[in-house]
Write a structure and sequence with these properties.
The structure holds two protein chains of two kinds.
Chain A lengths: L7 H14 L9 H22 L11 H4 L13 E3 L4 E3 L1 H10 L12 H13 L11
Antiparallel strand pairs in A: 1-2
Helix pairs in contact in A: 2-5
Chain B lengths: L5 H4 L4 H6 L5 E6 L7 E6 L6 E3 L2 E2 L1 H16 L6 E4 L9 H11 L5 E4 L3 H4 L5 H7 L4 E5 L2 E5 L7 H6 L4 H9 L13 H12 L7 E5 L17 H8 L5 E5 L7 E4 L2 E5 L41 E7 L2 E7 L6 E6 L4 E4 L14
Parallel strand pairs in B: 1-13, 2-5, 5-6, 8-9, 9-10, 10-12
Antiparallel strand pairs in B: 1-2, 3-4, 7-8, 11-12, 13-14, 14-15, 15-16
Helix pairs in contact in B: 9-10
The chains are: A mainly alpha, B alpha/beta.
The complex binds fe (ii) ion (2 copies).
The site of one fe (ii) ion has 6 residues of chain B, from α5.
Amino acid sequence: MRIKPIQTGALGIILAGLMIFSPAQADEFTKADLELWQSEFQEVVKKGRQVFTDPGLGTNGVVCAQCHPNGANTHPETYPKFQKQLGKVATLGEMINFCIRNPLEGKDLALDDQRMIALQAYIAEERRGVKLAPGKH
Amino acid sequence: MSKLNRRELLKGAGVLLAAGTLPVSMVEMAFADNSKNFTFAYISDSHIQQIKGNIFVRNWDRGLIRSVAETNLMDPKPDFVFYGGDIAQLGKKSEIDHGLEILSGLRQKVHYVMGEHDYYLDLGEHWKKRLGPDYYSFDHKGVHFVVLNSILTYDDWTYNRWADGVERMNVMAGLDDHRGSPFMVGEKQRAWLKKDLAGVDLNTPVIVFSHSPLQKIYRGWNFWTEDAEQIQALLKPFKKVNVFYGHVHQIQYNQIGNISFHSAMATAWPWPYPESNAKDASHLPKLTVQMNRADPFFERDATGWQYIDIHSGNAAMTFSLTDNSTRTVAFNPETNRPEDTRYQNNRIPPQDHY
Ligand SMILES: [Fe+2]
Ligand SMILES: [Fe+2]
């Protein structure tokens, strides 16, 4: 692959930007940064819980939490894994869409839809601490 | 009659059998004197859910419609039917009425147990208007039956916390909603129960129906009754007691002293076992071999049916699971507890799936 030469004008602007907004070394971050990133994540977890209990996600008012209290039985730690009904090794997002299509009688979410990401963040948070076990049933 | 199997019970039900498993439970009371035998069916947790106007969630409707059809095809005919609670999802009149409309297809008398989903919108007003008292007892062919409303909770929670019944119902309907409150039978019914049981011979088999388990399994999801020990103490003097409960949407069984506990499956949807909640500890009876879970799944895999033989007050209960092998949990007189006749010491992968 050929890398496009960067125009010096643009590079100048990027460098200037770095100078202004990020004076510290690239590999340094502070406790405040860590806290910020954690709280950004927890915000999305919270939003995920809302989506997980949102009667408007599908078409029939049924919500994920009705069958998966505390995200139980979603097993994010086992993905990717083979799913018989999909006939392939699938991601967590594809299984979430399976449940949206079936019990919720809804339409697939795009895999990068903010609600899809939030659902995954919530589910993963509920399972925090469970050993990673890709492929396990 | 000692053992019935599903095929014998459903002679002439070929079409429905082909369609799959039956979300209804059959209970048989068998006595040494055969002429005393009788059976009853047990249907539970249909969670009829209104979408809008006369449109209801199809899956939940189907589960209940099928259980009614299967019950009507049973041979021998059950003497009556027990309904284990949670007719409705959000306690609405429309949901209770729609559920009862479907249940009106049953040819037998139905005894109802109050579920939390029937109660917390209007504190059971519509349910009681349609069905009568929420706790009572009766005798049938030598067995004393008791129905309890076990889904009450602390008055402060019920009366002082919520803007209206809709909010209260929504919170209680969320199994994992931490704003919920533990279930209980309460002092009034316990006093009534004590009085009711005072007139019953201690050798009479007693069968108690409640919605929540009258044992403490997992408080987080209300697989729990706050005053369980006090109820158990009232039942202790009897030679043989069976407690049947709904609410948990899964197979559970246990033995505490003289009391055998059995749960019923839901006609609506299955629940994971509480131990699969990674963040909390539960006390699922060690005895319980978990229900078979299809994986990859059929979303309603644990909606099935069961029937029970009772010999000298001891139950043998057979569960049919959708897309899964049949389970029989029978009282083993040698160990003095209910055991899975096939899987108790020999689990298969779908039972250790969590
Ligand atoms: Fe229920
Ligand atoms: Fe319930």
